[in-house]
Structure formats: C-alpha cells, structure tokens
Write a structure and sequence with these properties.
Blueprint (H helix, E strand, L loop, with lengths): L2 E8 L7 H4 L6 E5 L4 E6 L2 E7 L5 H11 L1 E8 L10 H19 L6 E5 L6 H14 L3 E5 L10 H13 L3 E4 L14 H20 L2 H4 L6 E3 L10 H10 L1 H4 L14 E3 L5 H11 L4 E2 L15 H4 L6 H15 L3
Parallel strand pairs: 1-5, 5-6, 6-7, 7-8, 8-9, 9-10, 10-11
Antiparallel strand pairs: 2-3, 3-4
Helix pairs in contact: 3-4, 4-5
Subunit structure: Monomer.
Family: Belongs to the metallo-dependent hydrolases superfamily. ACMSD family.
Pfam families: Amidohydro_2 (PF04909)
Length: 330
C-alpha cells in the first residue's frame, strides 16, 4: 500500500467573480499569468503565487507517482474560507469552491479525495453544507482553527463537531488568519511562528474548553502541521493544570489524558520533532501530510518518515497509510 497524504491543497484554475456573484467586498480572485502560473489576489493585493499543480489532476498524479503516494486528501486553501463574511455569503462561497473541488478531483476520484469547506461562522449553514458536500462526493471537511475570536470551544463550533461525529465525517483543522504585526511581517514569520502557535492554542481550546468532554470519541479529527507546538509544550500545560487548577483545570481530566482523541500530520521536516510526536501521541495518531503543492511543504512526500530509523516497520506502515485509512474510513 502506498502513502496516503492527508494534507494537500487545491486552487481552481478559475471561479466566478465573487463581487458580482455575491456582493461587494474584498474577495479572492485569480490573476492568470500563463498556462502554468497564476496569482491569488485578495481584492487588489497579491496573496500567493500558485502553479498548475494546484488544479491540474494530471500534474498532481505525476508528482504522487514520483513520491509513491497512493491517495491524497485535497482540501481548500484557507484563504477561501470567508469566515469574515456573513453566513449567507460564506455558504455561497463554500458551494462554489466545493463544487469546483469535485471537478478537480474527478479525473482521478479513486486517488484524489476532496475535503469540503463550510461557513463555520453559521452553525446551521455549516451542518447543511457539509451534508450536501458529502452527499455530492466529498470525503471530509477542512475547517480553520478559529473564526475571528471564536476558538474551537465556541458553542457553535462544538455543535458542528458533534454533527460531524454523528455523521461520521472526518475533520482536518488547519491554522489560518495568523496575527499581523511589524515583527511578524518579516521572513514569513506569520507562517513560521504564527501557524504553530495557532494550532497549539486550538488544541488547548479543545482540551481546556471541554470540547473533548462533550464531543463523542467517535469524532475523527486531525490537526495539520504536526499539531503546531503542542507536543513540545504539553509538559508545561500539564504542570499548569495541576499547579494553577483555579484558572486552568477547566476540563474534566488532565490534558495528557486526551491525547488519544486526535491525530496530527507528519509535516515537521526533521526526525527529532517526528520522534517527539510519536513519543507524545503514539504512532497510531500520526499520519503523513505534506502541505502539497506549496513551497513550505514536504517533497518528496513522507521523506521525514523514510529517514526515521527509530520507528519500527509496523509503526512506519501505520503512519504511512494505516492510520489514514482509519481516519478516512477506507
């Protein structure tokens, strides 16, 4: 069995003018520069340069074959989430991109597994859209790790996660919308430090906010980018839960007892942090992820796993594909 990559992204080669389709505002659009290159725009500002591997199934499959990847989970690029818009506007955006994702994956639907986006700011609309998307052929849902100042322990988000658990929909949590400041705007620091911190904070919210106490264990949820900095600082969190219980012991049990409730991907690039993830969460809660096709992703996919001599063959097989098969209910 080849590798299953649970963390990749797509960008369609075109989509409707959202300002005309939905209404005025700062919307993502695509400036096509050539057959192989384009620029995602936010209003008039350049956001990210992308290439045809974002939308071309043939290009994706060639790279997958080169890296020994059997299956890819293909998720939205978070800039499309539109959580800052009204629920009515965001559900229209979600439907547009979810339908385009199905088109991108259709040429190889046995290998490219689309994950939907939802208007997470509107719980009822989010539940309805994930049901529509799954019925149409999506295999799961990707959500951002927060909606403005609402983290994953927000009541509406908890209700959505309960719905996903009841419907058997796997959830991939991706960091996004990192804080900006003069210090963070240098060297891509929002991506280098902000992303790990965002994911760390949201796992804490799931624990201390009581989400794992309220959502059934049947929820299959994974956090991108190795769970951020959570594994490294679990000891600090555990110490604080016991020593400052007046402020922090808001979950039913200590943080370390919830480690079997979620998974993370392996896109940490070096054997030492991968060992930490395995030592902390167990090999059964780590899955290959690459962040393909973006430049800060891992290529060849799974190369950090290949170099991890401290893992047994059985552990490598679990991380390479076994755990993902369970996460995706394959």
């Amino acid at each position: 069995m080849g590798t299953i990559d649970i963390h990749t992204h797509y960008v369609p080669s075109a989509w409707p003018d959202l300002s005309q389709q939905i209404g005025p505002g700062v919307w993502p659009s695509l400036r096509v520069d050539s057959e192989r290159e384009a620029m995602i725009m936010l209003g008039e500002a350049e956001f990210r340069r992308v290439e045809s591997d974002c939308w071309d199934a043939e290009a994706r499959l060639a790279d997958m074959d080169a890296d020994g990847v059997a299956l890819q989970v293909v998720s939205p690029t978070p800039v499309f989430f539109s959580y800052d818009k009204s629920g009515d506007e965001a559900v229209k955006v979600a439907r547009i991109f979810n339908d385009l994702a199905l088109e991108i994956c259709a040429p190889a639907s046995d290998r490219l597994l689309p994950f939907a986006q939802v208007p997470l700011q509107d719980t009822d609309a989010a539940c309805a859209e994930v049901d529509r998307a799954i019925a149409a052929g999506h295999r799961g849902v990707e959500i951002g790790n927060h909606v403005g100042d609402r983290d994953l322990d927000d009541e509406g988000v908890v209700t959505f996660l309960q719905h996903c658990a009841a419907q058997g929909v796997p959830v991939l949590v991706h960091p996004w919308d990192m804080p900006e400041s003069p210090r963070l705007d240098r060297w891509m620091a929002r991506w280098l430090t902000g992303m790990p911190a965002e994911t760390h904070l949201s796992i804490i919210a799931m624990i201390l906010g009581g989400v794992f106490d309220r959502v059934p264990p049947s929820l299959r949820i994974a956090f991108a980018h190795g769970g951020g900095s959570f594994a490294f600082w679990l000891g600090r969190l555990e110490n604080a839960w016991h020593r400052r219980a007046d402020l922090i012991a808001t979950s039913e049990r200590p943080p370390s007892t919830y480690l079997d409730r979620f998974s993370v991907d392996s896109v940490v690039f070096d054997e030492a942090p991968l060992r930490l993830l395995v030592d902390t969460l167990g090999a059964e809660h780590v899955m290959v992820g690459s962040d393909y096709p973006y430049p800060l992703g891992e290529r060849p996919v799974g190369s950090v796993l290949d170099r991890a001599d401290f893992l047994s063959d059985a552990e490598k097989a679990a991380i390479r594909h076994g755990n993902a098969r369970r996460f995706l209910a394959i």
